[in-house]
Design brief:
The protein has about 450 residues and is mainly α. The protein has one domain (about 20-435). The chain contains 16 helices and no strands. It has helices at about 20-50, 50-85, 90-120, 120-125, 125-150, 155-180, 185-205, 215-255, 255-270, 270-280, 290-325, 335-360, 365-385, 390-415, 420-425, 430-440. The longest helix has about 35 residues, at about 215-255. The radius of gyration is 21 Å and the shape is globular.
Length: about 450
């Protein structure tokens, strides 16, 4: 087993003490806002485009998202790892991440160009539009890096404003297109690309809250690149699964079924909102010593899993009933895909805080094996089952895959913290009392 590095008891670089509750609230507003805006955008696009054209938009945007994950996953994880080692400052980290991210984006652009060329006859985008998509891909990588640094600096509100602005822009763009009856695959892709570029310009880099560390920039850049190469397989294998099935469904079943499946995925992503908010909120705590962080993360994991499960049941029931009403009768076929996907989404969002902790504590090799195994299961399962069954098979494979990832992360985290699986997964009376104490409903205001 790779040697876990001990937690370092370092003080936050921000002048403000990070509050898990405050940061969770801010992140929750951001992710709920983005989810609501994305949901409204999906409704508009499905009303304006055929299922096949909707599938083409999803194919391009998800492919760009997938490749940006490939490019940024290891960098983002390594930023947290280096930050937890006390010596490296956030100012050097954000500068080094920009340079490494630029190289990673250039590499990720190569498969985008190849697949764009292979799909040129069926999608028919102009060269200028493909260039804009490539710029958007690089912007997604840069925004992921800057967001990670801003979250570590306890500036999650800056991330929230920037991210919401991009989502709102895409919604407005799509609404104008639909109202003018001018929406097309080409025009909507242009709007999406611009909405991916805008958040990078807004988030910026403010030196006043990015302090320097002991290590010079050139050394930080070298260490970040080295850590990225070590952790990239572990990080990207887990993240890629969420986007990979979209590519596989298109290859095996065509754009029509992809249009249906992607709608189920869009609805299922509503479950991710609260738990990803918790993940973002916990980033500022990753420099705390293990004696403090392990019990905190265990409680966060228990509450997040219970909360995500409740939200998942609600989304599965309400979503399956409303999909044909909201999106159109033909989208009723996607209801089973949604129901089958929900358990996998719950597992996906529940593993994130544990994964971040483990990657920062040196479990790179173990996570690489786990992520690689899950990715292989997802790839082989989809390739085989989609030959015999429709897009619902992709939901089943994704759920099994993320159950494997969550189980592996729980096992490693529990062993590291000398806990049992129950202490990581099952919510208890103390947790419920803690949650109740944070909710002001039903309490009398002081006189």
């Amino acid at each position: 087993m790779s040697e876990p590095s001990p937690g370092s008891g370092r003080e936050p670089e921000s002048a403000e003490t990070p509050s898990a509750l405050t940061n969770t609230a801010i992140a929750g507003v951001m992710f709920m806002g983005r989810a609501a805006l994305a949901f409204a955008t999906v409704i508009l696009i499905t009303r304006g485009l055929s299922t096949a054209d909707r599938g083409k938009v999803v194919y391009i945007t998800n492919l760009a998202g997938l490749l940006s994950m490939l490019a940024s996953a290891g960098i983002v994880a390594s930023i947290t790892t280096l930050y937890s080692q006390r010596r490296v400052g956030l100012l050097e980290l954000v500068r080094a991440a920009s340079r490494v991210g630029l190289v990673a984006s250039a590499v990720a652009a190569i498969p985008m160009l190849i697949l764009g060329y292979l799909k040129r006859d069926s999608i028919q985008l102009s060269n200028l539009s493909w260039l804009l998509v490539l710029v958007a891909l690089g912007s997604l990588v840069e925004f992921a890096n800057r967001s990670q640094v801003a979250s570590l600096a306890n500036r999650i509100s800056l991330v929230a404003v920037s991210a919401l602005a991009g989502s709102l822009l895409y919604l407005i763009w799509s609404a104008i297109e639909v109202s003018n009856k001018s929406i097309s695959v080409h025009s909507n892709i242009v709007g999406w690309s611009i909405s991916a570029i805008v958040p990078v310009a807004l988030i910026g880099v403010r030196r006043r809250w990015l302090t320097s560390g002991e290590v010079p920039l050139q050394q930080v850049r070298t260490e970040l690149l080295s850590a990225t190469l070590r952790s990239n397989l572990a990080s990207l294998a887990v993240l890629v699964i969420w986007k990979l099935d979209v590519v596989l469904v298109e290859a095996a079943r065509g754009f029509d079924e992809l249009g249906l499946y992607s709608t189920a995925v869009a609805v299922a992503e509503m479950v991710m909102v609260a738990a990803i908010a918790v993940r973002s909120a916990m980033l500022a705590h990753h420099a705390e010593p293990d004696a403090v962080l392990v019990p905190r993360l265990a409680r966060v994991s228990r509450v997040a899993l219970a909360g995500a499960s409740l939200i998942g049941v609600a989304v599965a029931v309400v979503g399956s009933l409303l999909m044909p009403i909201v999106f159109g009768a033909e989208y009723g076929e996607a209801r089973w895909a949604l129901v089958l996907l929900i358990p996998g989404v719950v597992a996906l969002v529940s593993h994130f805080p544990l994964f971040d902790f483990l990657i920062a504590r040196g479990y790179t090799r173990e996570l690489t094996v786990l992520g690689g195994s899950a990715l292989a299961l997802n790839l082989i399962g989809n390739v085989v089952l989609l030959q015999f069954f429709n897009f619902n098979a992709a939901s089943v494979v994704s759920t099994l895959t993320y159950a494997l990832v969550l189980g592996g992360c729980v096992r490693m985290f529990a062993k590291h913290g000398s806990l049992n699986a129950r202490e990581v997964l099952l919510i208890g009376a103390d947790d419920l009392r803690m949650v109740r104490s944070l909710v002001p409903i039903g309490r009398r205001a002081p006189k």
